[in-house]
């Protein structure tokens, strides 16, 4: 018998300082499924089994590290699509990101950006291992 008897898959969560701006960013800019949760929370539905909770927090301070990574088949196309929607990619000169914000010096190709609350997110190029992931609609 496991130590914890889970009633559903585990989930993660993070804070934002403006829940309406977060809803618009994750739904409209990133094109993800955002559901309204209880008590003013948002549920970022990434698949049938993967959910991330977004909650409002007054005086929010974003973490200095990446809180959520989005694997993509083509980082160039992802960066272009997000930039066309106004997303600004972070520049990390000490790490050697290129002029588009893409890190190309070992490991997966990755580019970082922030949500309206300053939380660090990324798109990273990942080979498709099975079928192409399709988020629920």
Describe the 3D structure.
The protein has 137 residues and is an alpha/beta fold. The chain contains 2 helices and 8 strands. A 4-stranded mixed beta sheet has the order 1-4-3-2, with helices on one face. A 4-stranded mixed beta sheet has the order 5-8-7-6. The termini are far apart. 21% of the residues are buried. The model has no long low-confidence stretch (mean pLDDT 91).
Summarize the structure.
This protein is of the alpha/beta class and 137 residues long. It has helices spanning 19-29, 75-84, and strands at 12-16, 33-36, 42-45, 51-56, 66-72, 102-103, 110-114, 120-125.
Query: What is the string of SSEs from the N terminus onward?
Result: EHEEEEHEEE
Describe the strand arrangement of the main beta sheet, using strand numbers.
Answer: 1-4-3-2
What low-confidence regions span 5 or more consecutive residues with pLDDT below 50?
A: none
> How many beta-strand segments?
8
Q: Which bin fits the share of residues in helices?
A: 10-25%
Assembly of the depicted chains: single chain
Average pLDDT over all residues:
91
Q: What is the 3D form?
A: globular
Instruction: Give the class from helix and strand content and strand pairing.
Output: alpha/beta
Q: How many helical stretches?
A: 2
Main β-sheet, in a few words? 4 strands, mixed
